[in-house]
Amino acid sequence: MNDYFSVSDLNKHINKLLENDLILSDFWIKGELSGVKLYQQSGHLYFTLKDKYSSVSSVMFKSRVRNLKFEPENGMEVLIRGYVSVYNKQGRYQIYVEEMQPYGKGGLFLYLEQLKEDLRQKGYFNEKAKKQIPKFAKTIGVVTSQDSAALRDILKVLKERNYLVHIIIAHSSVQGEEAPYELACAIKNLNKYQNLDVIIIGRGGGSLEDLMAFNSEKVVKAIYYSKIPVISAVGHETDFSLCDFAADLRAATPTQAAQLAVPDLNIIKSELENINKRIVRSIERKISNNIEFFDRIMLKRVWTTPEVMINQYNKNLIDLQRRLIKSFSDLTKDKHHKLVNLSTSLDNLSPLKILNRGYSITVKDEEIVKSIEFINEKDNLNIKVQDGIIEAIVTGKEYGLNGKNKL
Predict the structure, then answer these.
(1) For residue 263, which of 169, 166, 158 has the smallest C-alpha distance?
(2) CA distance 60 to 103
(3) Considering only CA atoms, which of 119, 70, 101 is closest in space to residue 223?
(4) Are 145 and 249 members of one domain?
(5) Is residue 322 a part of any domain in this protein?
(6) Is residue 212 part of a domain?
(7) Are 20 and 59 in contact (CB under 8 A)?
(8) How far apart are the first and last CA of the chain?
(9) Number of compact structural domains in the chain
(10) What is the pLDDT of residues 70-109, one digit of tens each?
(11) If both were cysteines, with which of 31, 134, 296, 379 could 394 make a disulfide (CB 3.0 to 4.6 Å apart)?
(12) 126 vs 120, 180, 201, CA distance in Å?
């Protein structure tokens, strides 16, 4: 039997001792990050956790790195939950990290900035996706703690401004580990109400740590995917949360959220009364103007002495009738004169008129002879004169008027 350890046996034995230690198997530790390096191929994160006097090697495997809500950086102070084990090949112990959170305000601010940028790139703060807050909401959902001063302020303002509004309260924790889940569930449950017009989510002021529930990605997503418009009212006027960027409208305080959610009925009533008075005055002015116009019309001669106007119109009508008859008669005479002239001219051009003056018309085969070239010797011709037709046979023909060139 060997009376010595191998190096591997020693490391394994120490590792068993560490694994069986209840404290070292699951604990929280605070320290500053150093030598942070994320290996792209494996996805594992390696770093050294240190304080003023000591340091310890640490590793966070890929499956845990995926759950990080911020980007670890050198010099950042963090809280880590994990366990201790020995890396057998090198015989050194290291912390295997299960969970990591920023520690202190500096770490929280950095965490929030990184988360804000991540959510912005995913589109959860897109202005184009924001919904319009209705002007006259009838039913309003409120997500907050049922015992909070913020809820009392919201209810007071809502009832003062519009006593007719219906309010549905969705109770939720506003800080603590379960708060993000409860806030997100409350928003989702309110979306099941078909007649809900607006959702107010918020709480009173507090420290940055107190408001962290409203900086949760769960709550931001619930607001973004809400079909009902959401008004965010977290903390005081100077407080900002990631909910404010995701909401359709941001209110500086819960009181202002209630003011933005519903109009003031007293103001509306006053405005309606003023509008009613202006309408009445406008109608009265219109009636008065119409009465004056009617009075001016009644003073016209058509109403005072209608017979005079009728007689004058009759005279004008008779005169127009006379002028129309004269114009028609003159036009008829002119047209008749032109017709006579045209008939005379047409008659003068008549072949019969030519025959009366001693001329004749020679016809061959029912066609008028216009040239000597058209006839030949022995052709039968009909010669039309004033009082009949002469039948003739061509015995010869000559060209010209002087009898020359006989055939």
Answers:
(1) 158
(2) 18
(3) 119
(4) yes
(5) yes
(6) yes
(7) no
(8) 173
(9) 4
(10) 888 888 888 888 998 888 777 788 999 998 888 766 667 7
(11) 379
(12) 7, 22, 19
